[in-house]
Structure formats: C-alpha cells, structure tokens
Amino acid sequence: MWPVGWMLTALSGAALVVRHRRPLFALAVAAGCAVVYYPGGYPDSPMGLALLVALAGVARRCRRPAAVVSVAAILVAFLAVSNFGDDRAARSRQPQSVFGLGVVLLAAVTLGEVTRNRQERLAAAERRASEAERSREDEARRRATEERLRIARDLHDVAAHQISLINVQANAALHRPDPDSAFAALEAIRDASKEALREMRTVLGVLRQVDQPGTEPSTPSLTRVADLVAYAHTAGLRVQLTGDPPGQLPPAVDLAGYRIVQESLTNALRHAQATQITVDLRRTGTGMEVEITDNGRGPVDASRIRSGNGIRGMTERAAAVGGRLTAVPDPGGGFRVHAWLPTGPARESRT
C-alpha cells in the first residue's frame, strides 16, 4: 500500500477539513482519490468513509441537483476506470458493484439532505421566535405609549378645568369687598376642589386597577354636563345648554364627549376670555354631535389654544373612539369646537 495508498488516504482525509467552506472541492478530491485507490487493488481503508462524508456535505451545503450530478459523475468515473482492467470476472460483476455503490452514495445524499432540512427548520424556528419576541416588545412599547398618552389626557382634563375655576374664583374673592360675594367665591372654590379630588380618585383608581365594589368613583358622563355648566356659571360665564339629552351611550364615547365639553369650557375661560358659551348636544342616526361655541377673542387666542395640549387631547379622544373633531375660529367671532362621536355598531375603538 505504501506509498501511493497512504498518500491517497491522507489526501482524502485532509480534503474533509475544507468541506464546510468548499464542499464541492472536498468531494472532488475525495472522489478522485477513491477512483484511483479502489480499482488499484489496494486493501480496504477509511477512504470510502471520507467519500461518503464529503458527498453528504455537498448535499447539506448545496442543493439536490449538485449532489445528484456528483453521484452520477462518481459512478461514471468508477465505470471508466474499471473498464481499463483485464479482469473479466470483475467486469461481469460490474453492474452489481455499480448498483451497490449507487445505493450507498444516494444514502449519503439522503443523510445530508435530512441534516440540511433539520438545520433549516431549526433556523426558521429561531427566526420566528426572534420575530415574535420583537413583535411582543413592539406591542409592549406601543401599549405603554398609548397608556402614557391616556394618563396625560386624563390628568390634563381633571386638573386644568377645576384649577382654572379655582383660580378665577380666588381672584374674584380677592377683589370683592362684599363679604357675602367673597364667601360665595370660596364656596365655589370648595366645590371645584371637591370635584377635582373626586375625578383624581377616578384616575388613580384606574391606574391602580382597584376592583373593590362600592369604592370606585363614578366615571364622568355626558349626563353630568349640567354640572359643568353650573361650575362655569360660578366662574362668571353664561352657558346655554341646548340640543338632545345624551341618553345611553357607549362608555368610551360618553367619557370622550364629557371631556371635550369640559376642555372647551376650560379653554374659553382661560384663553378666550369669553362671557357667553353655547353647548349643543345632538343625537344622529349613528353618532353623537357635540358643538361648543363662544364669543371670545377668536383667531388670535385660537392659535394659542391650538398650540397647546387641549385641542390635541380632544382630537386624540375623538379619534380614539373612531370619531373626528374640528376646532376653528368662528367667522363671526369667537371659537367653535365640533366633534362627531360614533355610537352605532360601526364604532371602532383605537385604544
């Protein structure tokens, strides 16, 4: 066997080192060594195993056509080399030998494909798991952002309206020499602060997810718009409530409508210096229309209002329940806020 046999065996084994990076090159070297070695009458060696490993590597790293072509090329090479010999008995056994060799080679190809398919399935599962994890993280961030915006809107709506009323009444009390008038202003401050505390408990109760019957404060509703009108009256505004009674509404729509009226009254009091406001509530076939108009300063102060959080928060509240809101200066002076909030089956909540 020495030295050619050992050299061929060593070369075929060395070719396996590069089978991961260059599988076709490794197979070509191993097949060439085997084609020279076995017809030469050398004793059995691990060279056949090296050939099968290299072929399985081609099936695993490349696609099926490359592996099938490689099997056909190896069989043709073995047939060609075997025909050079003078052994007629060996030639008579050639069909059986080629068939057996072909079966072994195809088994190596099958093993390589099974390994490749398993690796592809594992890689696909890892990709799906990674994508699912990213999707969960994105969803968590989206929900956290929506929750922060909702909390910011609630805190703004609760604090801004009542504190504005308290501020107006406190200033009025300071400038009223009549004790009875000052006392009335203090009573209005007391009522406004009490309402602010009640609504703050509502917000905090939702944040803490308190689930104790009888302890959760009532949710603001359009049925309590008259209370907002009464508070506005105590601040010196003349507010007229017109339209239809709101009746039974979906909770999200009911709360959105209440907050829109509340914020509009606050803006008129704080920014527009209005003295007269009209709040109009009307039921339509598939929704609730809320319109608030005032006789304030109009376009100049309207631009200030639009740049703050009030109009943005009202717009977000309307959009969250599938509605829409416009806030524009009135051509005749003042400011107008109009919201349409869906109440029918087509209502779509985006929160």
Description:
With 351 residues, this protein is of the alpha+beta class. It has three domains: 3-130, no CATH class; 146-209; 222-342, Histidine kinase-like ATPase, C-terminal domain (Heat Shock Protein 90, 2-Layer Sandwich). The chain has helices spanning 4-15, 23-37, 47-61, 64-82, 88-92, 94-174, 179-208, 225-234, 251-272, 299-306, 309-320, and strands at residues 238-243, 276-283, 287-294, 324-329, 335-342. It has a five-stranded mixed beta sheet with strand order 1-2-3-5-4, with helices on one face. The longest helix has 81 residues, at 94-174. The chain is rod-shaped, with a radius of gyration of 42 Å. The relative contact order is 0.06.
